[in-house]
Write a structure and sequence with these properties.
Strand content of chain B: under 5%
Strand order of the largest sheet of chain A: 1-6
Oligomer: heterodimer
Mean pLDDT of chain A: 87
Distance between the termini of chain A: 28 Å
Distance between the termini of chain B: 16 Å
Low-confidence stretches of chain A: none
Structural class of chain B: mainly alpha
Low-confidence stretches of chain B: none
Largest sheet of chain B: none
Number of helices of chain A: 21
Helix content of chain B: over 70%
Structural class of chain A: mainly alpha
Shape of chain A: globular
Largest interface: A-B, 32 and 27 residues
Mean pLDDT of chain B: 91
Number of helices of chain B: 3
Number of strands of chain B: 0
Largest sheet of chain A: 2 strands, antiparallel
Number of domains of chain B: 1
Number of domains of chain A: 1
Chain lengths: ~525, ~55
């Protein structure tokens, strides 16, 4: 068993500290910093925590199985996004949205909050900021506002966006079921949805615009948070962010027609593709996922082939025991990633039959997918591998014990801050959940708190971290001519990130009291 | 060496990802054989070094 001491706790924290320092102060990417964290974890675990070669070897295999579970979704989400993007459909969707309203608050909400969340739902990985920021500049907003608004607006949808990759990562590392984790996660992220909408308005027009757009945020936020909650608790969490944003768009159609928001005329924007065809790939996705998740015989048929490995009991030289058991199971044909692949293929064939592709489109789709997917994957693999080493030799448990001792009864308030820190340092809600998910789970267990509530706070904090993650801000700034001037944008988003996380901390404290 | 790594960074990043996905399965197959386990862990280390250079 690992005995607690402050020095040992600091060593257990050292791999995470190395990643933090390299990413924040030395501007390293997730892959490079994760690899440095891996070396630190190997050395510290072998020298101080009794990690044997066999333990390290099996931790790597477990880590790769976890990584594959997440990478399957990430790669297929990128394929679908590029299949759609190659046709010009993203621009068509943006043009279609622009016709809704001439009201600045509605425009900000549509693009920065709803459309950004929609893009997070179907793609993620910085795409919402990169796509929305230039569209807002085109509508006359300053570059700083154009980057800050989608950065803040989309962040609530990150956990259940990207086909639920971040939520999948939390399930994978904690070993807890989606049905147990989903309700509280959807509830806290739903609360964050309202707060992000209000913050997006405040960035541009202060409290005056919040007062003007507040009723719209209330109505649209209820549609989005409610839809996300319904999809998450009914097993369709892969569609949580995507479905919520579609519900938000529908609600916005109604809200934008209210006389209060129709005082300024909307300008028509041209596009070679109609909104219906532009959205057809996502309608196909809804049909495929609904069939694969809700239709019992189809789900059973697709779920027959599973990739899994059995691991023996692992005992470190220091006496930490990990029981024997199966690693992460990957349903090869029924996984969320597989459903995305089917939707991508059908969409590609439909768009090709309609003549929306120029010659060589398949090659460009593949090249763009690989270009975005490889760096993201390296970050995830290296971080999951070092997180598994920490877990398998008791380092994560020791960290959790220390956090539990330091924060005591106030721990629930700080749970989302840990998630926020993870996303800030890694630029990813998924990585934050991988690095801190087990730590939060163990801390909750030690403190006698509901793991579902604490992990919901972890992933909500991780999602909110997207608005302050340098990696994502850099992507947005590069699309509106602010490259190298990320500081002012970060200063604009960080106060909203900290305020919303504090409010989520209070909500977590209340939830922890209610579930004790 | 530095020029080579810079020129081929994208390809090397892809290769290191494939290696990182494959080597842990070799480590699993090598369980109980200490010599092979050390070789596998050494390979993981080399791949992580490569990621630190090109990732």
């Amino acid at each position: 068993m690992t005995e607690f001491s402050l020095l040992k706790w600091l060593f257990a924290f050292s791999p995470i500290a190395v990643v933090l320092v390299l990413m924040i102060w030395f501007d390293w990417g997730g892959g490079r910093a994760g690899a440095a964290g891996w070396f630190t974890a190997v050395i510290v675990s072998a020298v101080l925590f009794g990690a044997t070669p066999e333990l390290l070897a099996l931790a790597q295999t477990k880590g790769i199985l976890l990584s594959l579970n997440v990478l399957y979704i990430i790669w297929m989400a990128l394929v679908l996004y590029n299949v759609v993007s190659e046709t010009g459909a993203i621009e068509a969707i943006g043009a279609g949205i622009q016709r809704f309203s001439g009201d600045k608050s509605i425009q900000l909400l549509i693009f920065g909050w709803i459309f950004g969340s929609f893009l997070q739902g179907v793609a993620g990985y910085g795409v919402p900021i990169a796509v929305v920021a230039p569209l807002l500049v085109g509508l006359g907003f300053s570059p700083l506002v154009a980057v800050a608004v989608p950065a803040i607006g989309h962040s609530w949808s990150v956990t259940f966006g990207s086909m639920g990759a971040s939520f999948q990562a939390m399930i994978a590392v904690t070993g807890l079921g989606a049905a147990y984790l989903a309700p509280w996660s959807a509830a806290l992220l739903g609360l964050a949805a309202y707060l992000c909408g209000l913050a997006a308005l405040h960035v541009y027009g202060g409290w005056r615009l919040v007062g003007h757009g507040g009723p719209a945020v209330l109505a649209i936020g209820t549609a989005m948070a409610g839809t996300q909650y319904f999809l998450a608790v009914s097993g369709m969490w892969t569609l949580g962010g995507f479905g919520a944003s579609l519900a938000g768009l529908a609600a916005c159609l109604i809200v934008a027609r209210a006389p209060f928001y129709r005082r300024q005329r909307a300008e028509a924007a041209d596009s070679r593709m109609g909104l219906g065809w532009a959205l057809s790939a996502y309608l196909i996705l809804i049909a495929v996922v609904s069939l694969g998740v809700l239709c019992g015989p189809v789900r059973h048929f697709l779920g027959q082939v599973k990739l899994s490995l059995h691991f023996p009991e692992i005992r470190s030289a220091a006496g930490w025991v990990t029981p024997a058991g199966h690693g992460a199971r990957i349903s090869v044909f029924g996984h969320g990633g597989a459903l995305l692949a089917y939707a991508s293929l059908i969409s590609f064939l439909v768009y090709r039959a309609r003549g929306y592709y120029s010659p060589g489109a398949a090659g460009r789709i593949l090249a763009k997918t690989i270009k975005s997917g490889v760096p993201t994957s390296l970050g995830i693999v290296s971080m999951v591998c070092f997180a598994m080493i920490m877990d398998q030799c008791g380092m994560t448990y020791l960290l959790a014990e220390g956090v539990s001792r330091i924060f005591g009864a106030t721990y629930p308030f700080f749970a989302p801050w840990i998630g926020l820190l993870g996303a800030f340092m890694t630029g990813s809600n998924t990585n934050s959940n991988v690095v801190f998910g087990v730590l939060q789970q163990r801390t909750a267990d030690l403190a006698g708190l509901s793991a579902a509530v604490i992990l919901a706070a972890q992933t909500t904090g991780g999602a909110l971290g997207s608005m302050i993650a340098p990696a994502k801000i850099i992507v947005g700034c590069s699309t509106v001519g602010l490259a190298g001037r990320e500081g002012p944008v970060l200063r604009a988003t960080i106060k909203y990130g900290l305020t919303i996380t504090g409010l989520i901390g209070l909500a977590t404290t209340l939830a922890a009291i209610l579930t004790r | 060496m530095a020029d080579f790594l810079k020129k081929h960074s994208a390809g090397l990043a892809g290769l290191s990802l494939i290696g990182l996905l494959a080597v842990p399965f070799l480590l699993y197959a090598a369980a109980g054989r200490p010599g092979l386990t050390w070789v596998g862990l050494g390979l993981m280390g080399l791949l992580m070094l490569l990621v630190m250079k090109v990732g």
